[in-house]
Amino acid sequence: MKSTVLAALLLAVLGACAQTETRKEVGPPLEPPKVTDSKPHDYPGLHQVVAYTADIWSGALPEGEEGFASLARLGIKTIISVDGGATDVATAEAHGLRYVHLPHGYDGIDMLRRLEIARAVHDLQKPVYIHCHHGKHRSAAAVASTCVALGYLKHDEAEARMHVSGIAAQYTGLFQAVRDSQPVDEATLKTADDSFPAHAKVSDMVEAMVEIDFAFENVQHIEKAGWTTPKDHPDLVPAAELGRMADHFKNGGETLPADEQRELAEWMKRSYQQVADLENAFLAGTQTREEMSVRFKAIAQNCKDCHAKHRN
Question: What is the pLDDT confidence band of residue 32, given thresholds at 50, 70 and 90?
Fold first, then answer.
């Protein structure tokens, strides 16, 4: 009997040690954002961080190990992504963080998804960090609607914090989602799904747009560095990133049904051709940096025009 007990204790100790070894060392605590802040906070690998309540925050996608380490140093326990991109669950767990994936679009948040996000915030360990890609629009609406639903903020208070996050006025559906939110009782909250998935399946088109967004940001870094590899992003090869962005536009257009969303498909095709031409010009070395930047600005404007009509 004694040997059995000793063996069990030894296994428990070894298990605890193994868990400690896999947990990342994150460094000293960071100063958390305050609900009185008038602008977002930036931390290593973490941007656009805004506190809506003392333990419910909005912000941008954590950038690799550095971003997740910052979350851990800030004391965050649960991360909720409302972005369409894949969640880096392994890195989050290595820092002792739970990841939940409940994506929604730019056109608003339906009642069911609002309830699911609110229940996750209510049930799971706090502080909670809710993010989209940039931390300005979708995450702001998700946090604001959740705080209203849980009775933490009134509508005008929630909307005021959305402006601190930097949400753009054209995303009327996101503002409407917050205005449609109402405080919910415990019974209503419990009707929402409590599986809290770490990965959610999104459409091929959403996946394509996520990849385009990442590629576009990489090319922005390259453009700011004078069309060379940026010193702070030595992994970015200009020709490779331009080719990658062109491929994503091409593939994104091909995911659309042939008889539907023809205008959007044409927009994607036009963007693909613009990026392919820019890539060819870069490889040929026939244009100045300024001329390259003019071409890139035209691509950016084409994206903005498309987003104004089709982003959701």
Answer: very high
